[in-house]
Amino acid sequence: MLQAVESIPLAEGSGDLTEEERYPLTNLLGLVHYNRVLSLRPSGLILDSTPLDLLFTLPMEKPLLGLSAPEDESMQPVILLFEPSKETYLDVISSLPEGAYPDSEFLQRVPSTPAPADGESPMTLLAQTSGLDDVDAQFDATDFFDTTAYIRLSDPGLPGPEYDMPRSNYVRAMPRSKQARKAWEGVYERFRDARMEVCGLDLEAVETHKLELQDAVASENVETHGQRN
Protein backbone atom coordinates (compact mmCIF):
# COMPACT_ATOMS: atom_id res chain seq x y z
CA MET A 1 0.00 0.00 0.00
CA LEU A 2 1.36 3.42 -0.95
CA GLN A 3 1.18 6.14 1.67
CA ALA A 4 1.98 9.80 1.13
CA VAL A 5 4.60 11.14 3.53
CA GLU A 6 4.39 14.81 4.44
CA SER A 7 7.45 17.00 3.95
CA ILE A 8 8.90 18.89 6.89
CA PRO A 9 7.63 22.46 7.42
CA LEU A 10 9.84 24.85 5.47
CA ALA A 11 11.33 27.77 7.33
CA GLU A 12 11.81 31.14 5.64
CA GLY A 13 14.80 31.11 3.30
CA SER A 14 14.96 27.29 3.09
CA GLY A 15 13.79 26.90 -0.49
CA ASP A 16 17.02 25.16 -1.55
CA LEU A 17 16.51 22.03 0.54
CA THR A 18 17.20 18.69 -1.12
CA GLU A 19 14.49 16.06 -1.47
CA GLU A 20 16.23 14.09 1.29
CA GLU A 21 16.00 17.07 3.63
CA ARG A 22 12.36 17.79 2.79
CA TYR A 23 11.31 14.15 3.17
CA PRO A 24 13.61 12.71 5.88
CA LEU A 25 13.45 9.07 6.88
CA THR A 26 12.32 10.10 10.36
CA ASN A 27 8.92 10.99 8.89
CA LEU A 28 8.28 7.25 8.56
CA LEU A 29 8.15 7.06 12.35
CA GLY A 30 5.06 9.24 12.20
CA LEU A 31 3.03 6.58 10.34
CA VAL A 32 1.58 5.41 13.66
CA HIS A 33 -1.40 3.62 12.06
CA TYR A 34 1.01 0.90 10.82
CA ASN A 35 2.53 -1.76 13.08
CA ARG A 36 5.74 -1.87 11.05
CA VAL A 37 7.25 0.02 8.14
CA LEU A 38 9.96 -1.32 5.82
CA SER A 39 12.21 1.10 3.94
CA LEU A 40 14.69 0.11 1.22
CA ARG A 41 17.49 2.61 0.65
CA PRO A 42 17.86 3.52 -3.03
CA SER A 43 18.99 2.96 -5.61
CA GLY A 44 18.25 -0.73 -5.89
CA LEU A 45 16.32 -3.59 -7.45
CA ILE A 46 13.82 -5.93 -5.85
CA LEU A 47 14.45 -9.29 -7.49
CA ASP A 48 12.23 -11.36 -5.17
CA SER A 49 9.84 -9.73 -2.69
CA THR A 50 8.93 -12.91 -0.77
CA PRO A 51 11.96 -12.89 1.60
CA LEU A 52 11.35 -9.18 2.22
CA ASP A 53 7.80 -9.95 3.36
CA LEU A 54 9.22 -12.07 6.18
CA LEU A 55 10.85 -8.96 7.67
CA PHE A 56 7.43 -7.87 8.88
CA THR A 57 7.60 -10.75 11.37
CA LEU A 58 11.30 -10.41 12.30
CA PRO A 59 11.65 -9.99 16.11
CA MET A 60 12.77 -6.49 17.07
CA GLU A 61 14.05 -5.54 20.52
CA LYS A 62 13.91 -1.82 19.64
CA PRO A 63 11.56 0.18 17.39
CA LEU A 64 14.41 0.91 14.96
CA LEU A 65 16.58 -1.64 13.19
CA GLY A 66 18.93 -1.36 10.23
CA LEU A 67 20.11 -4.30 8.13
CA SER A 68 23.37 -3.95 6.20
CA ALA A 69 24.73 -6.01 3.33
CA PRO A 70 26.79 -8.91 4.78
CA GLU A 71 29.91 -7.90 2.82
CA ASP A 72 29.72 -4.21 3.79
CA GLU A 73 32.27 -3.55 6.54
CA SER A 74 30.93 -0.03 7.08
CA MET A 75 27.65 -1.54 8.37
CA GLN A 76 25.64 1.15 6.59
CA PRO A 77 21.96 0.15 6.90
CA VAL A 78 20.28 -0.55 3.56
CA ILE A 79 17.02 -2.05 4.83
CA LEU A 80 15.35 -0.11 7.64
CA LEU A 81 12.63 -1.48 9.90
CA PHE A 82 10.45 0.89 11.89
CA GLU A 83 7.78 0.25 14.50
CA PRO A 84 6.17 3.70 14.39
CA SER A 85 4.86 5.41 17.50
CA LYS A 86 4.47 8.97 18.69
CA GLU A 87 6.87 8.30 21.57
CA THR A 88 9.62 6.96 19.32
CA TYR A 89 9.18 9.79 16.84
CA LEU A 90 9.49 12.46 19.53
CA ASP A 91 12.46 10.70 21.12
CA VAL A 92 14.37 10.53 17.82
CA ILE A 93 13.48 14.06 16.74
CA SER A 94 14.66 15.49 20.05
CA SER A 95 18.13 13.98 19.47
CA LEU A 96 18.55 15.50 15.99
CA PRO A 97 19.55 19.02 14.91
CA GLU A 98 16.73 21.51 14.55
CA GLY A 99 15.42 22.19 11.06
CA ALA A 100 16.66 20.30 8.01
CA TYR A 101 19.27 17.59 8.37
CA PRO A 102 20.62 14.81 6.12
CA ASP A 103 19.46 11.24 6.66
CA SER A 104 23.00 10.35 7.67
CA GLU A 105 22.40 12.19 10.96
CA PHE A 106 19.48 9.90 11.67
CA LEU A 107 21.13 6.70 10.42
CA GLN A 108 23.96 7.13 12.91
CA ARG A 109 21.37 6.57 15.64
CA VAL A 110 19.92 3.39 14.12
CA PRO A 111 21.32 0.11 15.52
CA SER A 112 22.51 -1.94 12.56
CA THR A 113 23.25 -5.61 12.00
CA PRO A 114 24.13 -7.70 8.92
CA ALA A 115 21.07 -8.97 7.10
CA PRO A 116 20.03 -12.37 8.51
CA ALA A 117 20.58 -15.52 6.45
CA ASP A 118 18.48 -18.66 6.50
CA GLY A 119 20.84 -21.64 6.42
CA GLU A 120 18.05 -23.85 5.04
CA SER A 121 17.27 -21.50 2.16
CA PRO A 122 19.44 -20.57 -0.84
CA MET A 123 17.98 -17.05 -0.81
CA THR A 124 20.10 -14.03 0.06
CA LEU A 125 18.06 -11.22 1.56
CA LEU A 126 20.37 -8.35 0.67
CA ALA A 127 23.41 -7.71 -1.52
CA GLN A 128 25.32 -4.68 -2.75
CA THR A 129 27.07 -4.28 -6.09
CA SER A 130 30.29 -3.13 -4.41
CA GLY A 131 30.49 -6.53 -2.70
CA LEU A 132 30.61 -8.44 -5.98
CA ASP A 133 34.35 -7.89 -6.18
CA ASP A 134 34.83 -10.18 -3.17
CA VAL A 135 32.86 -13.24 -4.28
CA ASP A 136 34.46 -16.70 -4.33
CA ALA A 137 35.36 -18.85 -7.33
CA GLN A 138 32.03 -20.73 -7.16
CA PHE A 139 29.99 -17.57 -7.74
CA ASP A 140 27.50 -17.85 -10.61
CA ALA A 141 25.74 -14.80 -12.06
CA THR A 142 22.54 -16.69 -12.93
CA ASP A 143 22.23 -18.11 -9.42
CA PHE A 144 22.86 -14.65 -8.00
CA PHE A 145 19.80 -13.23 -9.77
CA ASP A 146 17.70 -16.25 -8.83
CA THR A 147 18.57 -16.20 -5.12
CA THR A 148 18.85 -12.51 -4.18
CA ALA A 149 15.89 -10.58 -2.81
CA TYR A 150 17.15 -6.98 -2.90
CA ILE A 151 20.35 -5.57 -4.35
CA ARG A 152 21.51 -2.02 -3.80
CA LEU A 153 23.55 -0.38 -6.56
CA SER A 154 26.40 1.41 -4.82
CA ASP A 155 30.01 1.51 -6.01
CA PRO A 156 33.03 3.73 -5.31
CA GLY A 157 33.55 6.31 -8.04
CA LEU A 158 29.95 6.17 -9.29
CA PRO A 159 27.38 8.73 -8.06
CA GLY A 160 24.49 6.33 -8.71
CA PRO A 161 22.97 4.12 -11.40
CA GLU A 162 20.63 6.90 -12.49
CA TYR A 163 23.52 8.94 -13.94
CA ASP A 164 25.00 8.60 -17.42
CA MET A 165 28.67 8.21 -16.55
CA PRO A 166 31.51 7.68 -19.05
CA ARG A 167 32.16 4.03 -19.85
CA SER A 168 35.66 4.27 -18.34
CA ASN A 169 34.15 5.01 -14.90
CA TYR A 170 32.03 1.88 -15.08
CA VAL A 171 34.98 -0.24 -16.17
CA ARG A 172 37.02 0.91 -13.15
CA ALA A 173 34.16 0.02 -10.79
CA MET A 174 33.51 -3.45 -12.25
CA PRO A 175 34.44 -6.62 -10.36
CA ARG A 176 37.46 -8.54 -11.60
CA SER A 177 36.05 -12.05 -12.04
CA LYS A 178 34.05 -12.88 -15.17
CA GLN A 179 30.90 -14.14 -13.44
CA ALA A 180 30.83 -11.28 -10.92
CA ARG A 181 31.26 -8.78 -13.74
CA LYS A 182 28.41 -10.41 -15.62
CA ALA A 183 26.14 -10.06 -12.59
CA TRP A 184 27.30 -6.46 -11.97
CA GLU A 185 26.60 -5.35 -15.52
CA GLY A 186 23.29 -7.21 -15.48
CA VAL A 187 22.14 -5.37 -12.37
CA TYR A 188 22.93 -1.95 -13.87
CA GLU A 189 21.25 -2.92 -17.14
CA ARG A 190 18.10 -4.09 -15.36
CA PHE A 191 17.98 -0.89 -13.34
CA ARG A 192 18.21 1.28 -16.46
CA ASP A 193 15.53 -0.76 -18.24
CA ALA A 194 13.18 -0.59 -15.26
CA ARG A 195 13.79 3.14 -14.86
CA MET A 196 12.66 3.66 -18.45
CA GLU A 197 9.81 1.13 -18.53
CA VAL A 198 8.28 1.96 -15.15
CA CYS A 199 9.13 5.65 -14.70
CA GLY A 200 9.69 6.75 -18.29
CA LEU A 201 13.02 8.25 -17.26
CA ASP A 202 16.30 8.11 -19.14
CA LEU A 203 19.66 8.40 -17.40
CA GLU A 204 20.50 11.86 -16.08
CA ALA A 205 23.41 13.82 -17.51
CA VAL A 206 26.48 13.55 -15.31
CA GLU A 207 27.09 17.29 -15.65
CA THR A 208 23.96 17.94 -13.59
CA HIS A 209 25.30 15.84 -10.74
CA LYS A 210 28.68 17.57 -10.92
CA LEU A 211 27.03 20.98 -10.67
CA GLU A 212 25.06 19.85 -7.62
CA LEU A 213 28.27 18.67 -5.97
CA GLN A 214 30.04 21.90 -6.81
CA ASP A 215 27.18 23.95 -5.36
CA ALA A 216 27.22 21.86 -2.18
CA VAL A 217 30.99 22.30 -1.79
CA ALA A 218 30.74 26.04 -2.44
CA SER A 219 27.95 26.38 0.12
CA GLU A 220 29.97 24.43 2.70
CA ASN A 221 33.02 26.62 2.08
CA VAL A 222 30.95 29.77 2.60
CA GLU A 223 29.50 28.43 5.86
CA THR A 224 32.93 27.35 7.09
CA HIS A 225 34.44 30.72 6.21
CA GLY A 226 31.65 32.49 8.06
CA GLN A 227 32.21 30.37 11.16
CA ARG A 228 35.92 31.16 11.19
CA ASN A 229 35.22 34.86 11.05
Descriptive report:
By secondary structure, the protein is an alpha/beta fold. Helix content is 35%, strand content 14%. It has 8 helices and 9 strands. It has helices spanning 19-22, 50-53, 86-94, 103-107, 141-147, 167-173, 178-199, 206-228, and strands at residues 37-40, 44-46, 64-68, 79-82, 112-114, 124-128, 148-152, 163-164, 204-205. The strands form 3 sheets. A 4-stranded mixed sheet has the order 1-4-3-5, with no helix packed on it. Strands 2-7-6 form a 3-stranded mixed sheet. A two-stranded parallel sheet has the order 8-9. Helix 5 (141-147) packs across helix 7 (178-199). The protein is globular, with a radius of gyration of 19 Å. The chain starts with 18 loop residues before the first helix and ends with a helix.
